[in-house]
Amino acid sequence: MIRINDFALKLANVNGTGSASANGLLMQAIFRMGIPVSGKNLFPSNIQGLPTWYEVRVSKHGHTARALDYDLVIAMNAETYGRDVKEVRSGGALLYDSSWPLDAELARPDITFLGVPLAKLCNEIFTDSRERILMKNIAYLGSLVALLDVDMAIIDELLQEKFSKKKALRDSNHRALRAGYDFAIEHFDCPLPIRLEKMTATDDRILIDGNTATALGCVYAGATVAAWYPITPSTSVMDAFKEFCAAYRKDPETGKNNYCILQAEDELAAIGMVIGASWNGARAFTSTSGPGISLMGELIGLAYYAEIPAVIVDVQRTGPSTGMPTRTQQGDILACAYASHGDTKHILLFPSDPAECFTLAIAAFDLAERFQTPVFLLSDLDIGMNDWVCPRLKWDDAYRPNRGRVLGADELEKMAKFYRYSPENEDHVAARSLPGVHSKGAFFTRGSGHNKLGGYTEIPDEYQEVMDRLARKHRAAARAVPAPIIHKQVDAAFGIVSLGGCNPAVREAVAALAERGIIADTMRVRGFPFGEEVEAFLAAHDQVFVVEQNRDAQLRTLLTMETSAPKEKLKSILVYGGFPLSSRHVIDGVTAQLEQRSAGSRVAR
Amino acid sequence: MPSPKPNVVHPHLRPNQIGLTIRDYEGSMSTLCAGCGHDSVTAAIVRSFYELSTPPHLIAKLSGIGCSSKTPTYFVGGAHGFNSAHGRMPSIATGANAANRALTYIGISGDGDSLSIGIGQLVHAIRRNVDMLYIIENNGVYGLTKGQFSASADIGSKSKRGEVNRFGPIDPVSLALDLGATFVARSFSGDKEQLVPILKAALSHKGFALVDVISPCVTFNDHEGSTKSYLYTRKHLLQLISADFVPFAREITVDYAPGTATSVRLHDGSVVRLRKVEADYDPTDRQRVASHLELHRNRGEIATGLLFVDKQASDMHDTSKTTEVPLAQIPYEKLCPGSAKLDELQKTFR
After folding, report:
1. Which of A298, A398, B157, B211 is 20 to 30 Å from A205 by CA-CA measure?
2. Cβ separation of B337 and A434 shorter than 8 Å?
3. Portion 257-276 of A in contact with B at CB < 8 A
4. What pTM does this model have?
5. For A208-391, which CATH class?
6. Which CATH architecture has domain A3-195?
7. Using one digit for the tens of pLDDT, what is the confidence trace for A207-263?
8. Of A206, A257, A392, which has the smallest distance from its Cβ to B323's Cβ?
């Protein structure tokens, strides 16, 4: 059966052999053919020699979550042949390097083996040993172009762009590509039943990873100070920020930098720098991952209590401890919600794709300054490091940052006396003064006990008064964080709640369940503290499935603690092995729970 | 709770160049123990800022946690202060400086704050050459937790309870020299004559100025057997080099005999004149300073003075090529690339 623009590939490679470039080209070419596509890089925490996989899902319906059934596997890693062969869907195909015979034990009668002598082809064309290895990737790309009917003109165009200044490399790529292509045309029935056909579904879309989008958001938000410590998977946030600043933040007259990026000695210092810079009136942020959040805990509490804005980008990875640094998870929800010792509560934002990384990064700065408090942008490795097809980013030139309540020299001059934590506004926020502005605004910021006037205190009532206001301030932020995205159906039997990168899988699952007559409402939360819409959604459903990617049901825990929803009606669907979520996980989770419930009610009867 | 000082202005108080008297550089009353060395350091800081005529609102004073870190409340009430977390002041000062390079930064720390919990941050602030004065009020003990040895306590020094310290000390001066600090000095809280010119020179220096001040703890470390007591310090103190500070505005009229004094013109045009006590001491030769210090340490002497200065080095902003305008003051319009640039950029995201 011919299937057009609806299939999945898995490419099994060895890391450090140059496969990323070929795989990226394939994904980009499909995108340029106008077809919705997604690529998931399942890579090891290693530089060279370990297994790495790249999955490409092509979906004319626009489903971009990870697929678990592979129509075609490209097996380039002898070490993982065994499991890679098993993963081919019955009736699918496996492309392998036939320079060496395939182990007879791996034979499967229900799949097609496509042998391409990639090593032999490259050995014939190239003399350099490194080139012979690298170009095998481009050679299999050539075969895929033939097998899947990729538009060769687009591949040419991409190679032209990529190697515009490196003619020799472009020629090498062309030769390898052609060799793989010609071999496939000659030996196989091209194209395969799974194949591509041009569409126009990506015309107004871009291909972007979340970390790049986050960095871009920070640039557009007006961040001038960034401090960080290298950590996977957040490093590319700062790489991109640096690149954008170099492009957009040079002073046109002096050529000097209108930004300062500090690579700190550790995350303790990174957050300290952000707090120092924010205290001094700059928009400042750090990007990190779970282990960094643990280290930052101490000063996050200081920023919370002293009421200093700070934006913390947490690109979550698999914990606890070092965990699996190159695998994704939503495991820092609770650690961030209540980061630091004592009573603390923070504002969290949950982007679901790179486009939201951009908009919510900007929102994070506005919220941090409006509420004078740390704000966490909780992205994850899947969003942050994989390329996603997203709507084109839009920018309103009328945007101006919300700097919150900051007193200028004139206002301070007119004041009889400035008190840092009084009087409060409707958000329960008091005005702050910045160093260097006016002597009257001088204030001694401290993380020690203070009263509502900002003076040191150890008096219970005075201490509690400030702590109570901070709790009210946090509650007030519920109105200001982005509202949840709710999709309601007629006759929904239950609700599904999720967050962040679960979104594509949940949406696809809901559509598939609907085809089976199982109707669900969905709510994707985008911020914490939870607002009225979240409360109302939970109240409106007798049964709610909470889909998230961690073991301990952290979103569900947060919902049970911070809303009035009874614990019993929130059931968890948890996937936390480190790979991105697939709709099948959600479908299986929901149907299993529904069966359990009906079995339970039968017993009760 | 610190209480404000009575606001009585003595008619004979002399105003400085910006019309402020020394009282304008004071803060609230100290709550430290009577006789604490830190209060003398505070008094020297007050005098230094007054004499330099620094506008109070352009000073940012930061500290970590400990007795020393309480002191920013006791000076320059008209300046913004930040009493941060234990050992974390260097990073906060670094970030603050990144955001606004136009302010004068003074960080107050102690030996516990700087040499144990915060040593990582201290060494990296030195490495970055953050433009600030960093004072370590060094007394060899943890005062607020009642007398544990700190990392600057000497081997064999006795605690008040009679315990003998067995671990070698970390000397902030040697550490700073080794890390490439651009201004390194040591003084004694009991010697205001020496301390004030050092602080003034340190404040005028562009880059990280580390001033280690032996500042005895009268309550927990001023007994017999302690090597950080007033008595011990006075007995073993050796003024290696003395400094006079000549502000930029004042004409240099007195010349010292050649061979005995070196003049160093600082970034802001002011001059430090260093009178050598030892004939072959050169405060601009890092290696020789280090070996001098080693020599005196082995003799059991506490070498003091403005020990090393390198006025050529670039500070954090030079290295980062940051614009002269404080980053916090750049209007948003200059920071946002705008919609046209975003559209242009997105053509590459395909």
Report:
1. A398
2. no
3. 257-262, 264-266, 268-276
4. 0.96
5. alpha beta
6. 3-Layer(aba) Sandwich (3.40)
7. 999 999 999 999 999 999 999 999 999 999 999 999 999 999 999 999 999 999 999
8. A257
